[in-house]
């Protein structure tokens, strides 16, 4: 890790360290009117998000500044789930998020717009394979 010249603090350098490109595991917990959870993978690369899980794929973008990051994603269903009541089932869902990023781990708070419902979610991304 490089420390900014004259800062004398590795904490300062950590705050300025960008989101690392790579493959991340993703765990999401949804709350509010509709509850649910999901696990999957995402690739973060130069401000672009791509990923998915057993039933959905995600595309979007993010930005990062001073230890905080924010972004948006669109979630699309790619596989039918007979007998399951999926929170996002059959819809294109827009999600916005903000959070923190440090040393290959991101914690996110966001909102998914599902029809007329706003569903809050929390997520954690963990870097598995740096790019």
Radius of gyration: 16 Å
| Total of DSSP H or I helical runs spanning 4+ residues | 1
Shape: globular
SSE order, one letter for each helix or strand: HEEEEEEEE
Q: Specify the oligomeric state.
A: single chain
- The level 1 CATH classification is Mainly Beta
Q: What is the CATH homologous superfamily assignment?
A: T3SS negative regulator GrlR
What is the CATH architecture annotation? Beta Barrel
How many structural units, i.e. domains?
A: 1
Average pLDDT works out at 86
Strand order of the largest sheet: 1-2-3-4-5-6-7-8
Kindly report the CATH topology.
Lipocalin
Largest sheet: 8 strands, antiparallel, barrel
- Low confidence ranges: 1-14
Output the structural class. mainly beta
Helical proportion?
under 10%
Relative strand content = over 45%
Distance between the termini: 16 Å
Q: How many β-strand runs?
A: 8
Describe the protein:
There is one protein chain. By secondary structure, this protein is mainly beta. The chain has a single domain, classed as Lipocalin (Beta Barrel), CATH 2.40.128. Helix content is 5%, strand content 60%. It has one helix and eight strands; from the N terminus they run αββββββββ. The protein has an eight-stranded antiparallel beta barrel. It starts with 9 loop residues before the first helix and ends with a strand. The model is unreliable at 1-14 (pLDDT under 50).
Secondary-structure map:
Elements: H1 10-16, E1 22-30, E2 36-45, E3 48-52, E4 56-65, E5 68-77, E6 93-102, E7 105-114, E8 117-130
Antiparallel strand pairs: 1-2, 1-8, 2-3, 3-4, 4-5, 5-6, 6-7, 7-8
């Amino acid at each position: 890790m490089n420390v900014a010249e004259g800062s004398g603090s590795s904490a300062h350098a950590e705050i300025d360290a960008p989101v690392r490109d790579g493959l991340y595991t993703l765990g999401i917990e949804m709350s509010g009117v509709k509850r649910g959870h999901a696990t999957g993978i995402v690739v973060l690369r130069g401000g672009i998000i791509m990923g998915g899980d057993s039933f959905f794929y995600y595309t979007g973008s993010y930005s990062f500044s001073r230890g905080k990051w924010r972004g948006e994603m669109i979630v699309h269903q790619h596989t039918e789930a007979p007998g399951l009541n999926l929170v996002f089932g059959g819809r294109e869902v827009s999600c916005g998020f903000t959070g923190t990023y440090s040393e290959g781990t991101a914690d996110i708070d966001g909102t998914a717009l599902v029809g007329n419902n706003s569903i809050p979610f929390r997520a954690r991304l963990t870097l598995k394979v740096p790019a």
